Fold each of these.
Amino acid sequence: MTTLRPSKPHPTVSIQPPTADSAAQEDLGFGTKVSQQIRTRLLNRDGSFNVARKGLALQRAWNPFHELVTMSWTRFYLLVLGIYVVTNLLFASAFLLCGEGALLGAPGRTTAGRTLDAFFFSVQTLATIGYGRISPEGLAANTLVAIEALVGMMGFALATGLLFARFSRPIAQIIFSRQAVIAPYREITGFMFRIANERTSQLFEVEATVVMSRLEGEPSERVRKFNTLTLERSKVMFFPLHWIVVHPINEASPLFGLTAEQLLESEAEFLVLLTAVDETFSQAVHARSSYKAEEVAVGARFADMFQREGEALTGIDLRRIHDIEPASLPGSTS
Amino acid sequence: MTTLRPSKPHPTVSIQPPTADSAAQEDLGFGTKVSQQIRTRLLNRDGSFNVARKGLALQRAWNPFHELVTMSWTRFYLLVLGIYVVTNLLFASAFLLCGEGALLGAPGRTTAGRTLDAFFFSVQTLATIGYGRISPEGLAANTLVAIEALVGMMGFALATGLLFARFSRPIAQIIFSRQAVIAPYREITGFMFRIANERTSQLFEVEATVVMSRLEGEPSERVRKFNTLTLERSKVMFFPLHWIVVHPINEASPLFGLTAEQLLESEAEFLVLLTAVDETFSQAVHARSSYKAEEVAVGARFADMFQREGEALTGIDLRRIHDIEPASLPGSTS
Amino acid sequence: MTTLRPSKPHPTVSIQPPTADSAAQEDLGFGTKVSQQIRTRLLNRDGSFNVARKGLALQRAWNPFHELVTMSWTRFYLLVLGIYVVTNLLFASAFLLCGEGALLGAPGRTTAGRTLDAFFFSVQTLATIGYGRISPEGLAANTLVAIEALVGMMGFALATGLLFARFSRPIAQIIFSRQAVIAPYREITGFMFRIANERTSQLFEVEATVVMSRLEGEPSERVRKFNTLTLERSKVMFFPLHWIVVHPINEASPLFGLTAEQLLESEAEFLVLLTAVDETFSQAVHARSSYKAEEVAVGARFADMFQREGEALTGIDLRRIHDIEPASLPGSTS
Amino acid sequence: MTTLRPSKPHPTVSIQPPTADSAAQEDLGFGTKVSQQIRTRLLNRDGSFNVARKGLALQRAWNPFHELVTMSWTRFYLLVLGIYVVTNLLFASAFLLCGEGALLGAPGRTTAGRTLDAFFFSVQTLATIGYGRISPEGLAANTLVAIEALVGMMGFALATGLLFARFSRPIAQIIFSRQAVIAPYREITGFMFRIANERTSQLFEVEATVVMSRLEGEPSERVRKFNTLTLERSKVMFFPLHWIVVHPINEASPLFGLTAEQLLESEAEFLVLLTAVDETFSQAVHARSSYKAEEVAVGARFADMFQREGEALTGIDLRRIHDIEPASLPGSTS
C-alpha cells in the first residue's frame, strides 16, 4: 500500500484541526451548505463553478456584454452574420411594403426578382455602399433609408467595440498538467502540479494559492473542510517557461500521513487559483483549476520537458507538460 | 420589548466611545457639518449620495463623457436619434440655401418636395451612402458635402467610442436584500443582510465594509457618530452564489444592548460598501447601499434560497433573496 | 508680527533635522541638483513640472499618442480638420496628374473647375460616399481611389480610437483653493487648503500627501530640504462635497515656530499630491498642485461654502471654494 | 588591480550564503535548470528573455492580438495593406467567375480590362464607396457584394480596435545607460546605472529592483546564485528628469570585496526590473534590462547631463545619458 509519507509510526495521523474562524475563512465563498452537499467537484477543470444560479427576471440577470465578449469566435461570427441577414430581410420587407415604385431603377419584374432587389438594395444601404443603380423614391422609402443608415452605423459601432473588447480581454491561458503528483521532494514527499503559459505574451508576478478540500470527522457526521496548503514558493516574478508548484508534505501539512486511498475515500479536491499580470496591457489575469483525488498520481514525478541541442538547453516543449514518470517515494515499499 | 441582546443586566449599555481621531476617520468624507445636519439618509438605497453640489460655470463642471456613459440606454438611443435628425435638418436647410440648382437630379418641384430632397440627400451624405441620383452641384453644395462627411465620420467615431465605453464599464450589479435583520447567530445575535451577484459574470475577492451611523450623546447636544462594524468575515474569494454578511453583536459591538426602538429614535443608518473584481475584464467594481433603522427586521432571519431536486442541491433562486422568516432571539421574551 | 505658533518662548525653533536617508527619500525624484538650484517653484499650480527635458532624436522622444490625447479639444478638432483638408488636396493633385479623362463625368472645363472637381471627388472617395456622378477612369485613377479608400478608412479608425481615448482618459479635475491658510485649529494652528471635485463623477478613496520644501541651514550653505507633513487625516473614503486638508502645526511639525516672513525668505513651497479612484471606470487618477509661501494666507480661514434653505443644508456652492476670511490665531497679537 | 572595495584585508571575501529558501525565491522564475545551464545572459538588453518555448499546436499558442499589437508600425501597415490587396484580389476573382454580365457598366472588354474592372469594383464595394458606374447584376454578384460589405465592415472594425490598442498600450520607454559603473559613493563605492524617461508622458512611483546573478561555489560544482541588491532608494515619487540607481557596496553587499576580474569570471549579470505608473492613463508599466559584467565600467562615474544657461539649470540633455568619466575609487591604487 502506498502512503504519502508513512515513515513515522502513525498510519493515519489526525490533521491539525482548523479553528472555526479559519475554516469559515477558507470555504472560499462557496458557503457552508453548498460545500457540504455537493458530491461532485466544486471547481471544474476549466475553472468554472459547479453550481447553478437561477431566477430573476431575465432582462436583469442577462448581461449581454459579458455573453458577447466571452462566447466563442465561431458563435460570435455566426451571430454577426445572422443579425446582418435578418436585419436586411426586415428592411427588404419594409421596402417591398412601400409599393412598386419605391425602388427606382430596380430591374426585378417578378415577385422573386423584386424581393431580391429589395434585399440587395437593403444591403447596399445598411453597408452605406449606395451604388445608386437602385435609389429610393418617395417619402416612405427615403425614411426607411434614413432609419436603415442609422441602424447600420450603430450596429457597426457596436461590432467595432465588441471586436476590440474580445481581443483585448485579459485571459491567462495557463496549461495545467493533466494530473498532479505526489513525488519525492528533498528528503520527504511533495504534492506537485505543473503549469505553463500557453500564450506568447509574457506573464509576471504569477501567484498560486492551493486549497485542499475533503470530508473530515466521524463517518456519521463528516463535514467538508478547507485547508490552504503551504507552498515551497507561492510567487514567481517571471514566468518564461514552466513552473512546478510544490507543496512539501511535512509534519505541518494536512496531507501528512494520509494514504492515497484516504484521499479518494474522503473526496479530496485540490482547488488551484492563479493570479498574474499580463505584459501586453499590464492587466491582472486570473486562472483556476482543480484536481480531484483520482487525478493525483501517487509515486510519480514530472518528466523533463527541456529541449536540448547536444549539451545545451534551448527551450521547453510544451507538448510534454503532462508527461509523468514513476518515482519511488521515501519510505514507500511499493 | 425586544432588545438586541439584553441577556446581561445593563439595558442601555453605553457604546464604547470612539476616540476623536477614529471618529474623524470614520465620517467617511461626508464632513462634520453635513453628517450632523442631514436629517434623512446619507446614502440612498441605490448607492447615490443624498447631498447636492451646485455652482461652477457649467462648462467646467459638466462632464459630458460621464453623462453619456451613465445615462439609461433609452435616453442614450433617443439622444443619438435626436442628434441624427437635427444634424440632417441643419444640413438640409444649408443645402436649400444654396439655391435650386445645387442638388442635381433632385426630383422635388414644390417647396415641400425640395425640402424632403435636401433632407434625404443630407442623410445619404452624412451616412456616406451617396446613391448618386442626387449629387451636389457648385462650390457651395460641394463644400457642404465635404463638411457633412467630416461631421458624419467624427460623430460616428464618437458613437462607436461611447457604445464601447457604455458596454465595457465595470458595474457590479449586486442585489441587496430589501431588509437587514437582527437574527440569532451562534449563542448571540447578529446584524445581517444578504447580497447576490445579479449578473452572469463572476465576481472575485468581494470585500464588505459596514459602518453604523447614529445620533449619540445627551438629547441637548446629540451628534452623529460613525462606527465601523466588525464582520464575521469581511472578504470572500469567490462569489458564485449569495453571501449573508454578518456582524456578530457581541460585547465589543456598538449595537450591543441597543433596542430596536433606540435604533429608530437615534436615526441609525447602516452604510454598506462593497468592492470586488469583475472577471470579464479584471476590473475593480464598487457597490454601495444603506439600511435605515426602519429597514432592519429585528427577530428575523433569511429564508433558505437553495433549489433542490430531491435531496440534491442544484442551485439558488435569486427571486427569494429578500425572503425573511421570524426567528426568536436568545434572551428575547417576545 | 504674525508667527505661526509663537506661544512658547522660542521664536525660531529649529526644525527637527531629517536624517540623510529620509531626506534622500523625500526629494520626491527631482534630484539633488535640480531641487537645490531651481529658484522658482518646482511644481506649477496646474501640477506640471518646472523643469525642461531636451535632446534625443525627435522621432524617439515624441509620443504622438500622448500629444493627441492630451491636447485641447480646439486644437484636436483643428488638427483633424487640417489633416482632412490637406489629405484631400494631396489626392486632388494626384487625380489632376492623371490627366483630363481620369475623372469621368467631371463637369469642370477650366483649370479652376477641374481642380475643384478633383478636390470634391477626393472628398467623396475619402469619406466613402461615392455619389458616382464623377467616377474614376483608367488604371491610374482607379489605383488612386483604392489607396485613398484605405487611407480614409485607416484615418477614420485612428480618429475613432483617439476620440475614445480622449473621452475615457481618467482625469481628476480637482479644484484647489487659490490660497492655503494658516488657520486656528483646535487649540493650536494648522496649515490648510481646500479641494473639491469639479466633475459630476464620484471620486473614492481620495488620498493626500503634502510635502514642504524650503531652504535650510546657514545662509552660506543653505540647501533645499523636503519634509512630509503629517495630516489630520490623509484619506477619505467618499468625496461628495469638499475637503479641507489639515496639517496640525504641533511641536512635531516642521512648521512649528516659523514666522510668515521665514516661510517667504526660505522660499518654502508646499507640494500637494492627490490620488483617488474615479467611479465611472474604477480608474486611479492623480492630481498635483503646489502653494508657494506667498500663496499662504497666515491668520485666515476658509469661509463656509454650504448652501442652505432656511435651516436645512441643501448642498455646497463650488464658486465659493476660494473664499477665505480673517481669523485670529491663538497667541497671535496682530 | 582594481577591486571594488579592497580596503579591508580579505581580497576575496565570501559572499553571505543565501539560505536554500531565499535562493529559491530569488531565481525569479527562470527555474533551476535554466539558470544553471544558460551560458549567455538570462535577460537581453531590451528586456526580452533569452530562452525559447516550443511545441503546442500552433492555433493554441498563437495569440494574434498580442502579435498584432506588439509588431512594429511598418510591419503593421504592410500587413494591413497586404490583407487589403489580397481580399480585393479574392473578391475580384469571384466576381469574374460570375460571368461577363455580372458587373453592369464595367467598361473592360479584354481579359485584362475585365480583371481590372473586377478588382476596382471590389475596392469600391469593400470600402463601401459604391460609385455606381459599375453595379452588380444577378444573384451571384449581388450575394458577393453582400458578403464583401460585411467582410469590409468587420475588417475595418478590427483595424479600428487594433489601432487603438496599439496606441493606448502602456509602454514605459525607459532609456538605460549603455554601461553600469562602479563609482565612488560617499566614503565607499557603489554599483550605479542611469535611467531616464524617453517619452513626454510623465511616470510616477517608479520602483527599481536589481538582482545580481553569478556562478558561485567551488570550481567543480559552481551553481548560479541570485542576490537582490539593496538600493540607496528603490522608489521615487516623480520622475521628471533622470535617476541614477545606486547600490552601495558596503559590507552587507554581495559585491563587497569582489574584483572586476571575479565579476567577469563568474559570469555576473545584473538584472534590472522597473515598474511605474504612466500618467496618461494611470496604467502600470514595466521595463526590464540587464548588465553583464563586461558592461560594468569599474572606476567610472556618470557625467553631468544638465543643461545650463549661465549659472541657471534649465533642463537635462538626454543624449548624454550614456556619458561616463573616469573616477578613482577609494582604496584603489590604479
Note: Helices of chain D lie at 20-26, 32-37, 58-61, 64-70, 73-97, 111-126, 138-168, 260-265.
Amino acid sequence: MKKVAIGVDIGGGSFKLGLVDLNGRVLARESFLTNSVSGRKAQLDVLAAHVAHFIKEARKKALRVRGVGIGAPGPIDVERGFVYFFPNIPGWKDTPLKDLLEKRLKRPVSVDNDANVMALAEFEFGAGRGTKNVIALTLGTGVGGGLVMDGRLFHGPRYSAAEIGHLVINEDGPMCACGSRGCVETYVGSGYFVREVKRRLKRGAKSILKKWTKENGKEITPLLVARAARRGDAFSKEIWRETGGHLGTALAGLANILNPEKIILGGGIAQNGSLLFKPLIAALGKKAFPIAARSVRVVPAALGVDAGLIGAAALVFAEHGDF
Amino acid sequence: MKKVAIGVDIGGGSFKLGLVDLNGRVLARESFLTNSVSGRKAQLDVLAAHVAHFIKEARKKALRVRGVGIGAPGPIDVERGFVYFFPNIPGWKDTPLKDLLEKRLKRPVSVDNDANVMALAEFEFGAGRGTKNVIALTLGTGVGGGLVMDGRLFHGPRYSAAEIGHLVINEDGPMCACGSRGCVETYVGSGYFVREVKRRLKRGAKSILKKWTKENGKEITPLLVARAARRGDAFSKEIWRETGGHLGTALAGLANILNPEKIILGGGIAQNGSLLFKPLIAALGKKAFPIAARSVRVVPAALGVDAGLIGAAALVFAEHGDF
C-alpha cells in the first residue's frame, strides 16, 4: 500500500490541508478560511472533519495514512505537540494540539512551527534535496528560520533554535521588536524594509517611487521597490544593494558557525532574483571563511506556497523513518 | 581491562601527551617543546616514541589502549585526519596525520582541531557534563569555538563549522584579519582588546594604566586591565563592560540560533570572573529571546590547561562509542 500523510498548514489567513505522498506530491487539497470559523474549538472541529474526510478518501484509494503533520504559526513544544500561542490567531494559548487531535482522530499527530516545516519541505523535496545540512529562511514581515543538520531538523533542547531573524548584525542598528538592536530582521523584514524606504524618501531622497506613490496612489512594498530598481531607479537599486549586503553579513556568520551546504531563501523578499542575490552572494563571499563560503550555495526556495503542507506531511514521514 | 586513550595536545609551544581514562582522569603525562625538535618529520618521530612508551606502560598496568586522539592547532579534515596547515608551526602543510601515525603505531588515530577538542572535553568531563547541547569558546588571541549538538561534536560537512569568533556583531565595526568587519573576535580577541586599550590611552583617556605602563614598565594585557578595574579604575571598568557587552551580543545570537543549554568560556580573557560575566549575562538576557535566554547558562571552563589532552582522548572514546 502506498504511504501518504496528511499535511496541515495553519495560517492567520487559512487552514490548508493536503494529502501528500512520499515524493512530496500533493494528491488532494482542502482548506478553510481561519476567520470563517470562530474560535479554537470550532476551528479544531472543522480541521478534524477535513482530516476525517481525507482519511476516508485515502481508504477508498487504498492509500495508507501514516499520520497527520501540522505546521503551526507560533512557538511549539515539539515533543508534546503543545502550542504556546499563535501571534496572529486568537484563542490558541496553551493548546495541547497533538493530544487533542490524536484522541479525536486515532492517528499519530506531529506538530512543528511553520519555519521548521518549510525547512524540512525544502530539504526533503525542494531546493535542499541531496544535501545533509541546510539553513532555510523565510523572508516575510519577520524572518523565520529552520535548520537541518546532519539530515535532521535541529530544534535545540527547548525547541527555540533557528530564530535566525534575531541574529544581531549591528549592535548599533535599528531597534527590533524583540528588544535587541540590529537583528537581521530589522534590515530584511518587509515591515522594516518599507519603513526605511519611507524614511529616506521623506528625508529628501530622489526616486521614481515618489511619483508612483503620490500620483498613482501606490503603496510602498518590497515588490514596488524591486520594480523601480529594474526600471533603473538609483535609489531603489541602492536599497536592494544594502538589503542584500545586510542579509549576506548574516549568512556569512551562519556559514562560519554551521558550515551548511545550502542556504534556502523563501518568502516575498526572496522573490526578487538578482536584486537580492547578487549583493548577498558578494557579501557572503567577502565575509565568510573561504572554506565555508566555497561549500555553501544560496538558492531560492523551490516549493512556493505548498511548502507548508508538504513539510507538515514530511514531519510524519520523518518521525516514522519512512524517508 | 580498564579502557584508556592517549590524548595528544599539539601546540605552538609544546606537544603534550596524556594517558587518560574513561572518567577523564590523566593517569600519566609526557611532553616536549615544539621548537626543541626541528621540522615535522622529527616532531612526528618524537611524538610516536612518546606514544609507544605510553602503550608499553599501559600494557604493564593492564590498561587497554583504545587509540590515540590528537587536538591540532589548525584546520583539519576530520574524517581523513588530514592537517591542512598549522598557522603557528611551520612545515605541517597538507599532512595526512592519521594515516602516518596509524601506519607507525598500529592503533586507531583520531584528529580534530583544538577548539573542538576543548569543547568535547568540557562536554564529557567539565562544565558541560549532564547536558546535550553546548557551545564552547576559547578566548585567546583569537576566538575559537566548538559545538556539541544533541550529544555530538558538530563539524559541518566540510569540517569548518563553529568558527564562532567570526560571527559579525557590527557591520561597521573594526576590520578583522579574516577580511570581514566587526567579527566578535575584533572585540574580545586579546590582540584587538589590547590594541583598543592602547588606542584610547593614546587619545587621552585617563587611567591608572598609564602610570603602570610608563613608570613601572608593564605591558598592557587583559590581565593588567582587569587588575586596574578591580582597583576601581573607571577607564578599565568601562573597557570590561564593553567587552562583556559585545560578547553578550554574540552569545545572544548564538542562543537564538542554537538554543544551547550551556555556553562555556575558556581562555585567558574568560578568567576575569564578574568583570566579563556580569555585563555579558546582562547583554545576553536583554538581547536573546526569553526562552533561549532562560534555558542557557554561561559558565567558565572547568578543565583548564588539561582540556586539550583530555578532549583529544575523548575523541577516541567517542569514536568507539565508549561513553
Note: Chain B has a mean pLDDT of 96.
